[in-house]
């Protein structure tokens, strides 16, 4: 079966760095997405990785290792507004998005 | 970035009535649109995938006669919840993509409350 695993909840301090991991087992792979979702709102796109390596975009970076079925989202200089759920999703061989359950990130002052 | 609108943003209705939710891609042509529902503190659950001009593909366990999906144009898809019941109360989110290798852009969601 297809499976995406990510931690349920993480807590970090304002100004610090946090890494949210995602491991996946899917039928085929056409890329991995990270989305941010604030409570009561729809997800917003953060990043897309299809090749191995690190993609940096401002305070957010995303890493992919296809051989290990592993990705992480790195958030630097955390701000209170970063408190949200972070969803990992993999595009499988049928170009269907397989979603993880999301990681709720709590930022403390 | 690409913009997807969804209307209405919030609807409250009586049990037994039907509710239509519209999803529009505003600045691109969406060959595929997706409908999700999300319960509180749960992840997104894909309900169906629709390609313009063809019948929607429903996920297992989703009743196609209850959740009617129409994707009549490259910029508009509608979801109609027929004979809504309190258990249908949820957050319904649509998304759209231009081609298969591009990210999905999400609408703002519709919160449905059935009394």
Describe it for me?
- The complex is a heterodimer of chains A (109) and B (115).
- Helices cover 0% and strands 57% of the residues of chain A.
- Chain A is an all-beta fold and 109 residues long.
- In chain A, strand 4 and strand 5 (44-49) form a beta hairpin.
- The radius of gyration of chain A is 13 Å and the shape is globular.
- Chain B has strands at 4-7, 10-13, 19-25, 32-38, 45-51, 57-58, 67-73, 76-81, 90-97, 105-106, 110-114.
- In chain B, strands 2, 4, 5, 6, 9, 10 and 11 form a seven-stranded mixed beta sheet that branches.
- Chain B contains no helices and eleven strands.
- In chain B, strand 4 and strand 5 (45-51) form a beta hairpin.
- Chain A binds chain B through residues 30-31, 33, 35, 40-45, 48, 87, 91, 95-97, 99-102, and chain B through 1, 6, 34, 42-44, 46, 49, 91, 93, 100-101, 103-109, 111.
Order of helices and strands of chain B: EEEEEEEEEEE
Whole-Å distance between the termini of chain B? Answer: 37 Å
Unreliable segments of chain A (pLDDT under 50, ≥5 consecutive)? none
Shape of chain A: globular
List the total number of helices of chain B. 0
Q: Which class of secondary structure composition applies to the elements of chain A?
A: mainly beta
Described by strand count, sense and barrel closure, the largest sheet of chain A is: 6 strands, mixed
**Radius of gyration of chain B, in angstroms, nearest whole number:** 13 Å
Level of helix content of chain A? under 10%
- Taken in chain order, the helices and strands of chain A follow as EEEEEEEEEEE
**Strand fraction band of chain B?**
over 45%
State the end-to-end distance of chain A. 40 Å
**Rg of chain A, alpha carbons:** 13 Å
Helical content band of chain B? under 10%
């Amino acid at each position: 079966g297809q499976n995406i695993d990510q931690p349920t909840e993480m807590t970090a301090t304002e100004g610090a760095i946090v890494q949210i991991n995602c491991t996946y087992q899917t039928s085929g792979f056409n890329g991995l997405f990270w989305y941010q979702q604030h409570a009561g709102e729809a997800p917003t796109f953060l990043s897309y990785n299809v090749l191995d390596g690190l993609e940096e975009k401002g305070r957010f970076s995303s890493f992919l290792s296809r051989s290990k079925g592993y990705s992480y989202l790195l958030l630097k200089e955390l701000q209170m507004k970063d408190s949200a759920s972070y969803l990992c999703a993999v595009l499988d061989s049928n170009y269907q998005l397989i979603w993880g359950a999301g990681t709720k990130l709590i930022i403390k002052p | 970035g690409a913009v997807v609108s969804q209307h209405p943003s919030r609807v409250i209705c009586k049990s037994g009535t039907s509710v239509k939710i519209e999803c529009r891609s505003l600045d691109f042509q969406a060959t595929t649109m997706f409908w999700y529902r999300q319960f509180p503190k749960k992840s997104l659950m894909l309900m169906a995938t629709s390609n313009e001009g063809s019948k929607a593909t429903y996920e297992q366990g989703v009743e196609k006669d209850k959740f009617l999906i129409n994707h009549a144009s490259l910029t508009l898809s509608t979801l109609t919840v027929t004979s809504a019941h309190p258990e249908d109360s949820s957050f319904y989110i649509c998304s759209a993509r231009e081609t298969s290798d591009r990210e999905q852009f999400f609408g703002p969601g519709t919160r449905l409350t059935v009394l």
